[in-house]
Amino acid sequence: MPQPLSNSRIRLSQGQIFWREVGTGPTLVFLHGSWSDGSQWIPIIERLSSNYHCLVPDLLGFGDSERRKIHYSIELEVECLAEFLASLNQRHIYLIGHSLGGWIAASFALKHPEKVRGMVLLAPVGLQKGKARTLGWLTRLLLLKIPMGLWLARSIKPLASVLGKPPLINQTLKYRQLLLNSPTTCKLFFQRNWSEIQAELLHLKLESLQVPTLILQGGRDTMSAIAQSKAYADLIPTSEHHIISIGENDLPQQFPAEVVQYIRDFIKYSVVPQEQIEDSDLLPPLFSDK
Any idea where the AB hydrolase-1 domain is (predicted)? Predict the structure, then answer.
């Protein structure tokens, strides 16, 4: 039977953070994706609360956490997470991150490996992409108060409907609305200097990460997302990669039961007695040579 969720707020040096909390046991910290907030994890933590202590913060600038007029960065979110965990006296945790949350989780583990017992990353972002800079430039056009691209799209929409080719225009309008509903995501991904974003990308850093990691990816997600997940798995030495074949881009809400089982199995098998480390035949797949 699911335990009742408690909602709390705390004032940190970076701003006020809202979080959900439930359960007892090993602490799992859930970090939400780019276009969401902590509520996306409710189907997951309801199933885990009987065995685990689940902490689900809204990242600074998202959901019910404070949306300060400051310069947002991945480093800022990592610092905020570190202070949040310290304020709750959480010294050894598992991190579960989706999309942007995966980027922040991996960045945190690189900076504080002694605090992270393991990570589960679902469709994580934060690696170098060839067209990222071009996409950022085009997205910034859509974020202008009177974007020329949007004006043109709206102007030709009636004609496109007659010609039977409206999907791209409709998708553009929906994408702009998504951007407007997610101002902090826009600041992190599209409204910073490219050199600053590049400095926070992880493709040159993940090889030094020794935290046990499970990568989960939907098989029907975009080719770019699938490629990034595979790259994470290839770069992190102590990682394992699993595809949920019919999953798309929101596994926590699409397949909560499957995700929960992966998390349970990962935690069960990622704790390996020290005397077994030297004998690879005794290790679960997560720790065996690739």
Answer: 26-244
The whole-angstrom distance between residue 185's C-alpha and the CA centroid of its chain comes to: 12
DSSP state of 71: -
- Across the strands, what pairs with 243? 217
Q: What is residue 11's three-state secondary structure?
A: strand
Of all residues in the chain, the percent with pLDDT exceeding 70 is: 78
Strand locations in the chain (E) = 6-11, 16-22, 27-31, 53-57, 93-98, 116-122, 213-218, 239-244
* All structural domains of the chain: 6-128+201-287 (3.40.50.1820), 132-189 (no CATH)
CA angle centred on 247, ends 241 and 249, rounded to 5°? 90
Residue type, 183: P
> How many other CB atoms sit within 10 Å of the CB of residue 244?
19
Geometric angle at alpha carbon 101, from 137 and 109, rounded to 5°: 115
| Mean pLDDT rounded to a whole number for the chain | 86
Q: Which candidate, 95, 68, 100, places its Cα nearest to that of 84?
A: 95
Rounded to two decimals, the pTM is 0.85
Token output for 161: 């409907």
- The rounded Cα 11 to chain-centroid distance in angstroms is 23
Reported as type and span, the H/E element at residue 275 is none
Around Cβ 62, how many Cβ atoms within 10 Å? 26
Mind listing the pLDDT tens digit for each residue in 164-178?
555 666 777 777 788
Distance, CA of 89 to CA of 105 (rounded, Å) = 18
Report the Cα 155 to chain-centroid distance in Å: 36
Which tokens in the block code for residue 108? 């945190």
Q: Percentage helix, strand, coil, to 5, in the chain?
A: 50, 15, 35
